[in-house]
Design goal:
This protein is α/β, with parallel strands linked by helices. The protein has 10 helices and 10 strands. The strands form 2 sheets. Strands 7-6-5-8-9-10 form a 6-stranded parallel beta sheet, with helices on both faces. Strands 1-2-3-4 form a 4-stranded parallel beta sheet.
C-alpha cells in the first residue's frame, strides 16, 4: 500500500482510520496483523502485544524460483509470528515446511455485497459467460480463458482490475476496475463464471458468483477444495487443461438443467460460509 494513502476507495463503507507507517511506529498496538509478505518485516518492527501473520497464499509462488522476491517471500515464513490462514491447504503447507501450528480462520461471503439483483443488461438468446481476473497477471489464467471461449456458442463478458483484452479475442462487453459493491450487478447478469487461475489462496470469485445465482467452471488450483465440489456446485477441470475446460463449459452452456442444479447447490453452499463463526474466531484470536 502507498504509505501516504489515506483512503481505500474500492472497499465499500470503509470506516477504519488509515495511518501511515511512520505514524504507526510511534504508537503501541494490541494486535498487529501482516497481510502480505512485504508487510511481514515492517510489522515486526511495530510495538504490539500480539503479532499475527495472515498468510493468504504461499506468496513465493508468485515469483520465479531463484528471484529476489521468491527468496524474500519464502523467508517471511520463518519469522516469529502467530500464524493465521484462511485455507486448509496453507495450514498443511506451513506445518509441513516450517512446523507452524496455524490458526484456521475460514473465509466467508458478505451477503450485503453479493446477492442476486436485476441484470444490468437483459439476457439474450445465448448463455452469458463471465471471465474475471487481472488480465496482466498470467497466474490468473485469463489468456487461457479467452482461448477457451473463443469459438463457443455463448456471449462473453470480462472484468479485469489490471489490463485489457488483446485485439481479436472474444469479448462482447468489458469492465475495468469495478468497485466491489458493483460486482453483484455483473455476476447477476451472467450465467457461468469461467475461472482458470493457476494460483489462489481461497477461491473468492466462484463463491461470489454462487451468491448471485450463477455457477462456475474452475481449474483445480489450490483453494478450490475449500468449498467447491465437482458436479455438485460447479464443474472442476484439471489445471492447465484448456480442452477439458472447453468441454465442461460447452456442456454447461447446452444443459440448462445442469446449470440450474449447480446454481441451486451453489446457493446452499453460500449459506454455509457466513461471517458469524469467522468473526467469533477472530475475536478470540485478537483478544
Amino acid at each position: 500500500m502507498d504509505p501516504l494513502r489515506s483512503a481505500i476507495d474500492w472497499f465499500p463503507q470503509q470506516r477504519v482510520p488509515i495511518i501511515s507507517y511512520d505514524a504507526a511506529v510511534q504508537q503501541h498496538f494490541d494486535v498487529v496483523v501482516a497481510t502480505h509478505w512485504s508487510t511481514a518485516l515492517p510489522a515486526l518492527q511495530l510495538a504490539a502485544e500480539r503479532k499475527i501473520y495472515f498468510v493468504q497464499s504461499i506468496e513465493s509462488r508468485f515469483y520465479p524460483e531463484g528471484s529476489a522476491e521468491y527468496g524474500a517471500a519464502l523467508q517471511t515464513y520463518t519469522l516469529p509470528f502467530i500464524y493465521m490462514t484462511e485455507a486448509r491447504w496453507i495450514q498443511q503447507w506451513l506445518l509441513q515446511h516450517h512446523g507452524h501450528q496455524t490458526i484456521y480462520v475460514p473465509n466467508g461471503i458478505d451477503e450485503t455485497l453479493f446477492f442476486p439483483v436485476e441484470p444490468i443488461e437483459p439476457r439474450r438468446d445465448k448463455v452469458r459467460v463471465l471471465l474475471e481476473g487481472p488480465i496482466a497477471n498470467p497466474l490468473k489464467g485469463m489468456a487461457e480463458a479467452f482461448r477457451v471461449v473463443q469459438d463457443l456458442d455463448c456471449e462473453v463478458w470480462c472484468v479485469s482490475s489490471n489490463g485489457e483484452p488483446e485485439p481479436g479475442v472474444r469479448c462482447d462487453r468489458f469492465f475495468s476496475h469495478v468497485p466491489m459493491e458493483h460486482m453483484k450487478h455483473i455476476y447477476s447478469s451472467c450465467d457461468i463464471l469461467l475461472k482458470l487461475s493457476r494460483v489462489e489462496g481461497f477461491f473468492g470469485p466462484p463463491m461470489e458468483m454462487m451468491a448471485c445465482g450463477g455457477t462456475a467452471v474452475v481449474g483445480n488450483c489450490t483453494g478450490h477444495e475449500e468449498y467447491i465440489i465437482d458436479g455438485n456446485n460447479a464443474l472442476v477441470v484439471p489445471l492447465g487443461n484448456e480442452e477439458a475446460a472447453k468441454a465442461s463449459l460447452d456442456r454447461l452452456i447446452h444443459d440448462p438443467g445442469l446449470r440450474q442444479y449447480l446454481a441451486g447447490n451453489g446457493m446452499a453452499t453460500v449459506q454455509q460460509w457466513r461471517w458469524d463463526s469467522t468473526v467469533d474466531t477472530l475475536f478470540r484470536l485478537f483478544s
